[in-house]
Design brief:
By secondary structure, this protein is α+β, with helices and mostly antiparallel strands. Helices cover 28% and strands 17% of the residues. The strands form 4 sheets. A 3-stranded antiparallel beta sheet has the order 7-8-9. It has a two-stranded antiparallel sheet with strand order 1-2. The structure holds zinc ion (2 copies).
Length: 183
């Protein structure tokens, strides 16, 4: 039996989002152990270590993978008004995800938000109905869409092909936040 996964404040369900997958055969390049789970999201290092699909969630959670490889897993450069501690936790101790363009972390109430996952039209209806208004707002404000065009774009959102929506939720006011990107 694998031990329970570490908990990640800013990415509460990494198995659900697909950023961590069960894999019995890939050893972690940080701790050299076969731990039953492997991280599948983005990794940036200055020395171009190939770490994608080769780190365990425990070495992300305790910061050892980030320290050993000078690696970061998320980009918070567009996120203003959060503490240095929150920034550090999101960048170096939180599993990231894979987007079409540079992944962006969203925040609210002076803190990073929790990443809930990718969404297409179907996921917005079934998993994240509370995020629908946020995605529509993004399509109005950032994609300049309205009416039938907005509905058509919304219906074309997918997790398998672009465009995709990325859903977050504030840990303080519980508001849904989102952004949309395409290849
Ligand atoms: Zn490890
Ligand atoms: Zn908030």
């Amino acid at each position: 039996m694998p031990e329970p996964l570490p908990s990640f404040r800013y990415h509460p369900d990494p198995l659900g989002t697909g950023s961590i997958k069960a894999d019995a055969d890939i050893p972690c390049l940080s701790c050299s152990r076969l731990r039953g789970y492997i991280y599948t999201g983005s990794v940036w290092t200055e020395k171009n270590f190939i770490l994608e699909d080769h780190l365990c969630p425990w070495c992300i959670a305790d910061g050892s993978a980030a320290k050993r490889f000078a690696a970061t897993f998320n980009y918070t450069g567009t996120l203003d008004g959060i503490s240095a501690a929150a920034r550090e936790e999101i960048e170096t101790r939180t599993p990231g995800f894979i987007a079409w363009q540079q992944e962006i972390w969203l925040g609210c109430c002076g803190d990073g938000a929790a990443f809930l996952g990718l969404a297409g039209a179907q996921e917005l209806r079934e998993k994240f109905p509370g995020a629908l208004d946020s995605v529509k707002q993004v399509l109005r404000d950032e994609f300049d869409l309205s009416g039938a065009e907005l509905t058509e774009f919304l219906d074309s959102l997918s997790t398998e092909s672009d465009p995709s929506a990325y859903i977050f939720r504030c840990q303080h006011c519980h508001k849904y936040l989102s952004y949309v990107d395409q290849a």
